[in-house]
């Protein structure tokens, strides 16, 4: 199975090859209903005990919170994400109530579960023509304090979403990287019965 420059070694749905993370965004506004359908996809991710520890806080461009959310990103990410249509902060709740318990306990799968939700969002975003781009280059302490997050919530990452724009919007260095990236061979990441370093 091949699409764009990517080839899967084993049969998969083409959506997995078609999703990739652009940096050149067109700068158009995203309707809130469109953004909500991307977040809706995230909602249906699986999670340990169905605790659904993910939370998403967003700002759309040309709205009151846009400049503040752009300021949550590091300088490099701001340089291209300023043309995105929405910035979403992905958060996870680090505690939850096990079945039958009366108090919350630390929840070891909060990041794993939030990661699954981000993956669902990214696939829906790509399928909807509003591709998403995850970002770890963010100011976590600033996000925590400005959004008033309680201690049992972790800032995971930020997500830029927008319509793909022309490559020429990017610096030369970023233009060179503006295409779907390859992957390690399956044999390097999956093995039967034993760990292969
Ligand atoms: C959690 C996470 C953090 C990332 N952080 C950044 C970032 O700070 N800046 C950036 O330009 N890209 C960032 N990326 C994008 C990755 O580099 C990209 O997903 C990876 O190279 C694979 O490319 P693809 O998404 O186009 O398939 C991040 C992606 C993820 C999932």
Report how far the terminal alpha carbons are from each other: 28 Å
Strand order of the largest sheet: 3-4-8-7
CATH fold description? NADH Oxidase
Task: Kindly state the number of beta strands.
Answer: 8
Biggest sheet overview: 4 strands, antiparallel
Classify the beta-strand content into a percent band. 15-25%
Helix percent reads: 25-40%
What's the average pLDDT?
Answer: 97
What oligomeric state is this?
A: single chain
CATH class category label: Alpha Beta
Bound molecules: flavin mononucleotide
What characteristic shape results from the CA principal axes?
A: globular
**Uncertain runs:** none
Number of separate domains: 1
Q: What is the CA-based Rg, rounded? A: 18 Å
CATH architecture: 3-Layer(aba) Sandwich
Q: How would you classify the helix and strand content by structural class?
A: alpha+beta
CATH superfamily: NADH Oxidase
Instruction: Give me the strand/helix succession.
Output: EEHHEHHEEEHEHEHH
At a glance:
Helices cover 32% and strands 18% of the residues.
Keywords:
197 residues; alpha+beta; NADH Oxidase; two-stranded antiparallel ribbon; 8 helices; 8 strands; globular; binds flavin mononucleotide
What does this structure look like?
The protein has eight helices and eight strands, in the order E-E-H-H-E-H-H-E-E-E-H-E-H-E-H-H. It is α+β, with helices and mostly antiparallel strands and 197 residues long. It has one domain: NADH Oxidase, CATH 3.40.109. A four-stranded antiparallel β-sheet has the order 3-4-8-7, sandwiched between helices. It has a two-stranded antiparallel ribbon with strand order 1-2. The chain has a two-stranded antiparallel ribbon with strand order 5-6. Helix 2 crosses helix 5. The longest helix has 18 residues, at 110-127. The radius of gyration is 18 Å and the shape is globular. The chain starts with a strand and ends in an 8-residue tail after the last helix. The model has no long low-confidence stretch (mean pLDDT 97). Flavin mononucleotide binds next to strand 7.
């Amino acid at each position: 199975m091949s699409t764009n420059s990517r080839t899967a070694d084993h049969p998969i749905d083409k959506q997995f090859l078609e999703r990739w993370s652009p940096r050149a965004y067109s700068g158009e506004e995203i309707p809130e209903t469109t953004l909500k359908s991307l977040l809706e996809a995230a909602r249906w991710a699986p999670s340990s005990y169905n605790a659904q520890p993910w939370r998403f806080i967003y700002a759309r461009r040309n709205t009151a919170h846009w400049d503040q959310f752009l300021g949550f990103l590091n300088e490099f990410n701001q340089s291209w994400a300023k043309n995105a249509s929405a910035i979403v902060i992905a958060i996870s709740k680090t505690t939850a109530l096990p079945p039958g318990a009366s108090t919350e306990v630390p929840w070891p799968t909060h990041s794993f579960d939030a990661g699954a939700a981000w993956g669902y969002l990214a696939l829906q975003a790509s399928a909807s023509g509003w591709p998403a781009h995850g970002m770890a280059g963010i100011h976590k302490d600033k996000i925590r304090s400005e959004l008033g997050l309680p201690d049992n919530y972790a800032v995971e990452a930020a997500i830029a979403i927008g319509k793909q724009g022309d490559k020429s919007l990017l610096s030369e260095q970023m233009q060179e990287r503006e295409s779907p990236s390859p992957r390690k061979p399956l044999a390097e990441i999956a093995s039967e019965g034993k760990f292969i370093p």
